[in-house]
Specification:
Helices cover about 45% and strands about 15% of the residues. The chain is α+β, with helices and mostly antiparallel strands. Strands 4, 5, 16, 17, 18, 19 and 20 form a 7-stranded antiparallel sheet that branches. Strands 6, 7, 8, 9, 10 and 11 form a 6-stranded mixed sheet that branches. Helix 4 packs across helix 8, helix 16 runs antiparallel to helix 18 and helix 17 runs parallel beside helix 18. The termini are far apart.
């Protein structure tokens, strides 16, 4: 009897029938859930009964909650070919793949055996070279691989293992047997996404999950964590996840795994190699790292010895590996193991190395670098899939994950045959197999779709720990061979049920053993740098919007003259918000250009996109609400302005909407961010930029005794305060005092210096001689001049000097704390 109650099973029988209505396995294809006789396989009964017991309406609600959980958690992936370069929501189907426990036992044993075999092959390629001397592995095949790294030959990886995490793509053939489609040895992705899939389903159908006693993922991640942390030899060291950055398709997974495993997420520019090891650049100086969980292709890891064009790696990293100062997981050069051509040799290598056949066979593969194989396979192209022998593409031909020979047109067929004749070493032929299907939830019912399962193994001691499940990619009905998220595939969780309850294990400490701490760990200089500039860009966007709002307000007044609007239009033009050739006497055109022209450095859309781009680099440090505020700001500023008759009102609404979003962002930063290093750098950026633009406002409007002073109060959001203190008429000295010198006004320059000094005082003191750091010297000297100034006597010379000092302060902060001597190329100061 099922682990579910008999009454629940009977109650849900009608719903089960509705779920399965119209579900028909494809001809000549094995289906995971249903036999060709229409019988549900035994290990699927409990899942279907559990779903049916919920009822159709509740199922729809639960599955909608799954999508909402993923959306609120910010799970995404990036499509490289998308011209809009947008992040796509995570495409999880809420029906898991169920694998019988007894089948899983034999499957994981076979994969562990394969992992040991692949490790031995890679070790021989970079070590003894016996497989070459015995003619078991062609030297031409290995030497022709872009993943074969000659500088690593003879270098034994620290810790003795090339593979710390290994993955295998498997699928069933029509006979129901599992076949290996591909080994993943470079930097296998998907383990973090598999964990997120599991958490999403546990949130939406927890009762069904518990009743099936599903094997848990935490022991696998605990083994991985223990293996990597066990490689640390010095107390002041830590493990890092090395990512290529936020533009990578799986960046979310990199950040997610770093948080879950307790590692630090770093990019290549965060690291530096010295004689005594590898170090992280942080705002507190250099911090040691000895272990890197690598998510960058090996060739890009060191521009000195590997790919000189790489901007992702760390100069000197290969030498640090040679010297045993740093361990990379996986080892540099291990990507040779995932070449498709390797599948042609592994069956024979298994017999030679282990003395037995592979427990799970490869998909049949023929490497065309061998003349005899080329001749034998010449007439079989139509029956085969032709693909690259390596992870990349062969020269002059794009094959993707493979293309059926029978589907080739005449011209392309000739090109491929010529490529094979010219460089057969780059091409393999593989057996065309129709892979099995599993059910997915579509339009309120189940339907079969082809899938590929990726199983993960982590080095643990002398063996491998296997994730009990994995990462499923599900294709469209016609995707019988190549399935990719880049081409619109879905994904699913994998459940291995048990007849007995599973031990409640988790990678996180139990509540009674969590130690109290009030620090968030190491802050890399790059993260602090991006937080600093995020603050600056948000303030700069707000200042531009306030200028446009003031301009629109003047245009709507009946007694407005060109003299009233010209200072605003000139300022917008001077800091590149609008084209230089646009006459400042056309305020409507100026306002519209500032709100719409995305090709100018200081326009609202450009600044909003710059803020979002900067925030994307540190997305793992922003809350979902904060990130959504940035996303909404860009969407609002990029949306086309409607061509209504009252265009001024439309622009005014756009400005107010964008300012409200910026206000929400500021509120989230003030109320939700802990007062630690990251928040301080965000605040430093905001305060410096606000002080700079306020100085510019004072210089441009403070000397105009007509409408200029009123405009200055409006731009500095200080009208109400002024009217509470003084008469309605604006006078120069009180206005200058309020906007420039008053330390109680959150918009004044003096207030910004108070905040800047407080943040700098909390920063690490890095001068060994005990003297003030350069940023504090600049800040204190400039603030002192303001604090001793007389509002009635202030001239533009002092204001301009203050503005210039603020720019020098920004550069000093970058050089002192952020590892930069000047702003990044895209992070320019606006013209004065």
């Amino acid at each position: 009897m099922s682990v579910l109650s008999e009454s629940a099973t009977l109650k849900g029988s009608d719903v089960v029938a509705q779920l399965l209505a119209g579900y028909r396995p494809l001809p000549d294809v094995y289906d995971e859930m249903m036999s060709h006789q229409g019988e549900v396989r035994e290990h699927w009964h409990d899942l279907l009964a559990g779903l049916a017991a919920l009822g159709r309406e509740e199922l729809s609600r639960r599955f909608a909650a799954t999508d909402r959980y993923l959306r609120d958690s910010g799970v995404f992936y990036r499509v490289y070919e998308d011209p809009a370069d947008v992040e796509r929501g995570w495409p999880l189907t809420p029906i898991p793949l169920v694998i019988a426990p007894e089948e899983w036992e034999s499957l994981q044993a076979a994969l562990v055996e394969r992992a040991h075999l692949v490790e031995r092959v890679i070790a021989d390629i970079y070590g003894a070279g016996n497989l070459f001397r015995e003619d078991r592995l062609p030297g031409a095949f290995v030497a022709g691989s872009p993943e074969f790294l000659r500088p690593l030959v003879g270098v034994s990886p620290p810790g003795g293992a090339h593979l710390r995490i290994y993955a295998v793509d498997i699928a069933r053939g029509p006979d129901g047997r599992w076949w290996v489609l591909r080994d993943r040895t470079q930097a296998p992705s998907g383990a973090g996404f598999a964990l997120e899939n599991r958490l999403a389903l546990r949130q939406s159908i927890p009762d069904v999950y518990r009743n099936l006693h599903v094997h848990r993922y935490a022991p696998f991640f605990h083994a991985l964590q223990a293996e990597l942390t066990g490689l640390i030899r010095q107390d002041d060291s830590r493990v890092c996840v090395l990512t290529p950055g936020p533009m990578n398709e799986t960046y979310f997974e990199h950040a997610y795994l770093a948080r879950y495993l307790g590692f630090l997420l770093v990019e290549g520019e965060d690291l530096t190699v010295r004689d005594n090891g590898a170090f992280i650049r942080t705002v507190s100086g250099l911090k040691r790292t000895e272990v890197l969980l690598r998510r960058i292709d090996a060739d890009f890891c060191d521009p000195l010895e590997l790919n000189a064009r790489s901007r992702l790696g760390v100069p000197g990293l290969v030498q640090a590996v040679r010297d045993g100062k740093v361990v990379l997981a996986n080892g540099l050069g291990s990507g040779i193991g995932e070449a498709r051509g390797m599948l042609a040799f592994l069956p024979a290598l298994s017999q030679a190395i282990d003395g037995r056949a592979l427990a799970i066979p490869n998909i049949a593969t023929w490497w065309l670098g061998d003349r005899a194989v080329r001749a034998a396979m010449r007439d079989r192209l139509d029956d085969m899939v032709v693909a690259s022998a390596y992870s990349g593409e062969p020269p002059n031909e794009t094959l993707g994950e493979g293309v059926r020979g029978s589907e080739l047109g005449l011209v392309r067929r000739r090109r491929i045959l010529q490529s094979i004749a010219d460089r057969g070493v780059d091409v393999v032929l593989q057996e065309a197999v129709r892979i099995s299907t599993m059910p997915v939830w579509r339009n309120g019912k189940l339907e079969p779709r082809p899938f590929i399962l990726r199983v993960f193994l982590a080095k643990h001691g002398d063996g491998f720990a296997v994730m009990p499940g994995g990462f499923v990619r599900i294709g469209n009905p016609d995707d019988v061979y190549a399935i990719s998220l880049q081409r619109g595939a879905l994904t699913a969780d994998v459940w291995i049920p048990s007849k007995t309850p599973r031990l409640e294990t988790t990678l996180l400490p139990t509540p009674d053993r969590i130690l109290i701490q009030r620090a968030s760990g190491t802050l890399p200089s790059r993260a602090a740098d991006n937080l600093f500039w995020l603050g600056r860009y948000m303030e700069r966007t707000e200042a531009t919007l306030r200028l446009v709002r003031a301009l629109l307000a003047r245009m709507s007044e009946s007694d407005t003259s060109d003299r009233d609007v010209e200072p605003i239009t000139s300022l917008l033009q001077s800091w590149s918000a609008v084209p230089d050739d646009l006459p400042t006497t056309r305020p409507m055109a100026i306002a519209r250009a500032a709100l719409q022209r995305g090709d100018h450095l200081g326009s609202v859309p450009t600044l909003a996109r710059a803020a979002r781009s900067t925030g994307s680099v540190i997305r793992d440090r922003l809350s979902p609400d904060t990130w959504q505020a940035l996303t909404r700001l860009v969407a609002t500023c990029d949306a086309p302005l409607s061509g209504s008759s009252d265009f001024e009102a439309t622009m005014a609404e756009r400005v107010e909407a964008a300012l409200r979003i910026i206000a929400s962002f500021s509120g989230l930063a003030q109320e939700n961010m802990t007062r630690l290093g990251g928040w301080r750098f965000l605040e430093l950026g905001r305060r410096i930029e606000r002080a700079i633009v306020t100085c510019r406002f004072v210089r441009n409007f403070g000397a105009r005794l007509d409408r200029g002073l009123d405009t200055l109060l409006e731009l500095c959001d200080s009208r109400i305060t002024y009217r509470q203190r003084y008469v309605m008429v604006a006078a120069r000295a009180p206005v200058i005092d309020l906007t420039l010198l008053d330390p109680s006004n959150p918009r004044s320059v003096a207030f910004q210096f108070d905040q800047i000094e407080a943040h700098l005082d909390a920063m690490p003191h890095m001068r060994p001689d005990g003297r003030l750091s350069l940023p504090r010297q600049i800040s204190m000297a400039t603030a002192a001049k303001l604090r001793t100034a007389d509002a009635a006597q202030i001239e533009d010379k002092l204001v301009l000097a203050t503005e210039t000092a603020l720019m020098h302060l920004s550069e000093a902060i970058s050089s002192t704390f952020l590892g930069r001597n000047e702003p990044l190329e895209t992070r320019e100061e606006l013209p004065s």
